[in-house]
Amino acid sequence: MCISRQGKTKVKIYINGQLLEQVQQFRYLGSSITEDGYCDKEIRSRIGLAKVKFMEKKKILTSKMNLDLRKRIVKCLVWSVALYASKTWTISKTAMKRIEAFEMWIWRMMEKISWTAKVSNSEVLNRVEETRCIIDTINQRKRRWPGHVLRHDVLLRDIQEGRMTAKCTRGRKRLQLMSNICEGYETAKKRAEDRCL
């Protein structure tokens, strides 16, 4: 696979005289990697897997059990599936809305509120005594991730720190992972360097 802006670049790689097949996407360590480099398909698949996990435990999660205990079960079982590898996602505005809609779907299902019922999101959040926090959780994980990479002298650090020199293309620049977490990157880098000493 060759990751590019257009996603249609052909590369020929030979190993022992055998041409490797070029694919458009593949799964690596449970994450879906696509040739266009976007995370939208991965986010959609993670949300789908998390909904399946919720439905498996629906009997427990919609029961009369203590609300705090049910919320802890959701955050342990369902969110862990949904947020797997989220620290490497570059989240666009549409993906952010999709993730927030998933969060509200969970709370509505827990409280057995039909999607046709005219209950506002703020009312649902009041009933479950929660605030919208899934995006904050993702951002918190993203801010911690560079520290793990920067503490070690490995190839991933060189890739993260490196810059590619090329002619700029027309149009708006794509959102990049580092610019997505840029506000906390320099402080995370300093913290990681201090911790190495």
List the helices and strands and how they pair.
Blueprint: E1 14-15, E2 18-19, E3 25-28, E4 31-34, H1 40-56, H2 58-61, H3 67-82, H4 93-110, H5 121-128, H6 134-150, H7 155-161, H8 177-180, H9 182-196
Antiparallel strand pairs: 1-2, 3-4
Tell me what you see in this structure.
The chain has 197 residues and is mainly alpha-helical. It has three domains: 1-37, no CATH class; 39-134, no CATH class; 140-162 and 175-196, no CATH class. 54% of the residues lie in helices and 6% in strands. It has helices spanning 40-56, 58-61, 67-82, 93-110, 121-128, 134-150, 155-161, 177-180, 182-196; strands spanning 14-15, 18-19, 25-28, 31-34. The chain has a two-stranded antiparallel ribbon with strand order 1-2. A two-stranded antiparallel sheet has the order 3-4. A hairpin with a 2-residue loop joins strand 1 and strand 2. Helix 1 runs antiparallel to helix 3 (67-82). The model has no long low-confidence stretch (mean pLDDT 79).
- Sheet-strand content, in percent, reads 5-15%
Distance between the termini: 39 Å
Broad shape? globular
Helix-strand string: EEEEHHHHHHHHH
* Stretches with pLDDT under 50, minimum 5 residues: none
* Rg estimate, integer Å: 20 Å
Question: What is the domain tally?
Answer: 3
Mean pLDDT across every amino acid position: 79
Could you give the count of β-strands?
A: 4
Strand order of the largest sheet: 1-2
Structural class: mainly alpha
Bin the helical content: 40-55%
Largest sheet: 2 strands, antiparallel
Number of helices: 9
